[in-house]
Amino acid sequence: MSHVSTPQHNDSDTPSRRSGGRGRDHGRAKRRHRGRNILIALGVLVVAAGGTAYWLYSDLNGNIKGVDIDKAIGDDRPEKLPTSGQNILILGSDSRAGANAALDAGHVSGARSDTALVMHIPEGRTKAVAVSIPRDTLVTRPDCTKSDGSTAPSAKRVMFNSIYSQVGPACVVKTVEKISGVRMDHYVEIDFAGFKGLVDAIGGVTVNVPQDIHDTSSGLNMTKGPHRLNGTQALQFVRTRHGFGDGSDLGRISLQQQFMLDLLSEIKKQDLLGSPTKSYKIADKLTSALTTDSDLASLTKLAEFGRSLNGVDPSTMETIMMPVQYDKVDPNRVVAAEPQASELWKAIRSDSPIPESAKKSPATGGSS
Predict the structure, then answer these.
(1) Nearest-CA neighbor of 91 among 168, 36, 39?
(2) Pick from 169, 168, 189, 192: which is nearest to 100 by CA?
(3) pLDDT higher at 286 or 310
């Protein structure tokens, strides 16, 4: 996996003003970093206050769609623990309709939640852990309220990624909370069609492909090694399953985790103040692709939340797949592996180090 390396500094060894330029450079970099955050914050306020610029702000703000998760779920949720840090459920929703269908040979229709990540940010917000829940996992879906107000009764052995299309995003949040016992502080959904535009807007993303990929379904052919992907190629990369590992969803998860980290690193490297036109283009693509919980569903709230996570370095983020094993009745499906899964979620709830045993999955999908 390609990472952005972060130099390690020891404050006690910081050079004096006479000992060279490294200390001065580091200090200037830190001041620029703080200055950039201040300028971004001021920029949001200026845009919100001024004439034509206000139209740009309103346009971006109107792109973001909100879901009132608290209202839809009610009080039937895990307790928010003081040690639990921040927990965000990130879904990648995917529609294969229209032009998008050509990327998967038109075999699938309808919208689905193809990617599900629980991002845990411990207290202090300097590191993060991303836990993937395989889409083919059989779960017990709790009773949920649909968008029309009717109730979907609880059901056993439901494939995880079917919940989104059948009942809606609030039910996905409720299901994840039941599985994990972890209360989700926020919900962020990224539409894959908008994701494609975002990758193009930032000029592509470089990934280090771990092995040759030949996917006859999508037409994606890549050799092992570094590649700079445009939006279409990135969408093929995160979708591919036929040309990687054993062709199951489990092999694809490692690619999705890798791409997420590389995308975050690429965005973090962008000079958003150096090119206002490019910044607007990126913001337009990003906000158009987003659906969030109602607490984040505005440009100012998203900016505030983003700044609060500024200390999280994507290159240090740990990625884990929820431990699963092949289902004994249907080997094409998986179920949570115990006690590993319970140990993993317990560590997340208590903001504790995750045991190595809880990171190992009996079902690997042909990837290591």
Answers:
(1) 168
(2) 192
(3) 286
